[in-house]
Write a structure and sequence with these properties.
The complex is a heterodimer of chains A (about 110) and B (about 110).
Chain A: E1 3-5, E2 10-14, E3 19-21, E4 24-26, E5 32-38, E6 45-49, E7 60-64, E8 69-74, E9 83-91, E10 96-99, E11 103-108
Parallel strand pairs in A: 2-11
Antiparallel strand pairs in A: 1-4, 3-8, 5-6, 5-9, 7-8, 9-10, 9-11
Chain B: E1 3-7, E2 10-13, E3 19-26, E4 32-39, E5 43-52, E6 55-58, E7 65-70, E8 73-78, E9 87-94, E10 104-105, E11 109-113
Parallel strand pairs in B: 2-11
Antiparallel strand pairs in B: 1-3, 3-8, 4-5, 4-9, 5-6, 7-8, 9-10, 9-11
The chains are: A mainly beta (about 110), B mainly beta (about 110).
Chain lengths: ~110, ~110
């Protein structure tokens, strides 16, 4: 069975400090990994996905197959980064998407 | 462009009453459709997904059911609500079959069972 683990429910950092939101997964095959974000009073939306190898709003995420991790990082946190972040894994022929429990990022001014 | 509509936005229902939440997608055909429940401390739990009309897969045993009567319509139902059915329900869709396809979410329904 596939599983996504986000060990921190809440992460508080000061503005300008580096951010790392942790995500570990378990899956026997080769999944696709995503990070979704939900800002206050907005819909849940895609932030970035592994396959695109992109940097969105200064965030990056590297897939480490050896450690089965897909941590989300940003060198300098901004107040507008405060949101709920979900790590997700897609697998199977029918694109089943499994989410972690989410981490609330709070950027302190 | 594609859009997803979900209603109602909020719903308060007594225990034992029926439930029907509706989700429709516009601007695309043959989408994959999903129902998730979002609960504090439990994240997003996949309830049902559908890859086509009449094709429903359930992820967890529960008091709920789903149906897809039309290509772009996905309905979440219950015959008799339980207190534990309270939560925030999200409908989502994705295109194609590639694992890298992203999900597009609706605005959600906050269900309170009293």
């Amino acid at each position: 069975a596939q599983r996504v683990t986000q060990p921190e429910k809440l992460l508080s950092v000061f503005k300008g400090a580096p951010v790392e939101l942790k995500c570990n997964y378990s899956y026997s095959g080769s999944p696709e990994l995503f990070w979704y974000v939900q800002y206050s009073r907005q819909r849940l939306q895609l932030l970035l996905r592994h396959i695109s190898r992109e940097s969105i709003k200064g965030f990056t995420a590297d897939l480490n197959k050896g450690e089965t991790s897909f941590h989300l990082k940003k060198p300098f946190a901004q107040e507008e980064d405060s949101a709920m972040y979900y790590c997700a894994l897609s697998s199977g022929g029918y694109q089943k998407v499994t989410f972690g429990i989410g981490t609330k990022l709070q950027v302190i001014p | 462009s594609q859009t997803i509509h979900q209603w109602p936005a909020t719903l308060v229902q007594p225990v034992g009453s029926p439930l029907s939440l509706e989700c429709t997608v516009e601007g695309t055909s043959n989408p994959n459709l999903y129902w998730y429940r979002q609960a504090a401390g439990r994240g997003l739990q996949l309830l049902f997904y559908s890859v086509g009309i009449g094709q429903i897969s359930s992820e967890v045993p529960q008091n709920l059911s789903a149906s897809r009567p039309q290509d772009r319509q996905f309905i979440l139902s219950s015959k008799k609500l339980l207190l534990s059915d309270s939560g925030f329900y999200l409908c989502a869709w994705s295109a194609g079959t590639a694992l890298s396809e992203k999900l597009f979410f609706g605005s959600g329904t906050q269900l309170s069972v009293l």
